[in-house]
Amino acid sequence: MSSAPPDPPGFELPLRLLLAFQVIIDELHAELAREGHAAMRPMHGFVFQAIGPDGTTAVELGRRLGVSKQAAGKLVESLERAGYVERTADPADARRKIVRLTAHGVDALARSARIFDRIRADWVRRLGAERVRGLEDTLRAMTPEDLWRLDVPGWFGTP
Q: Which residue of 44, 52, 79, 95 lies most exposed, with the fewest beta carbons within 10 A?
């Protein structure tokens, strides 16, 4: 008489979710590197989304990401050196600087979107469309409706 295998320990679920995230992000970044974006790091996607299409200040960027103004400033400096963002004077207040994505940053976002679609299509080929849709539906049911929680980097860094 065969019995069902025991349920895995509770800690396995968050670790499996994190590992799935890491597998997808590692694949994304390997492909981005091959396509001319070797300087991209996982954190940069959060930063790009927080900057948005109209740009933002370093103070607002830090607030959106849940990190200090100083941490946001360091991120901006490194992304500026890599050519992904630029700082320009705010037309409404010359003392303020607005951080905007450069064409190189916009290109990285566009390539990321295409690569994510390709990765999802690979999962569909491997697992079947019904299982992938079911997984997505389940995750939607168990997570907040707001898909763009950009403060995750700050949450990870909270003691």
A: 95
Q: How many CB atoms lie within 10 A of CB 73?
A: 16
The pTM for the full model equals 0.84
Digit-by-digit pLDDT tens for the chain (159 residues) are 568 889 999 999 999 999 999 999 999 999 999 999 999 998 898 899 999 988 999 889 988 888 888 888 999 999 999 999 999 988 888 888 999 999 999 999 999 999 999 999 999 999 999 999 999 999 999 988 876 666 666 666 643
* 34 contact partners, CB below 8 Å, separation of at least 6: none
For residues 97 and 137, give the distance between their C-alpha atoms in angstroms, rounded to a whole number: 41
Nearest CA to 54 among 101, 92, 16?
101
Q: % helix / strand / coil in the chain, to the nearest 5? A: 60, 10, 30
Place of tokens 């929680």: 149
Neighbours of 60 (CB within 10 A): 17
Residue closest to 44 by CA, chosen among 81, 88, 97, 16? 81
| Cβ-contact 150, 50 below 8 angstroms | yes
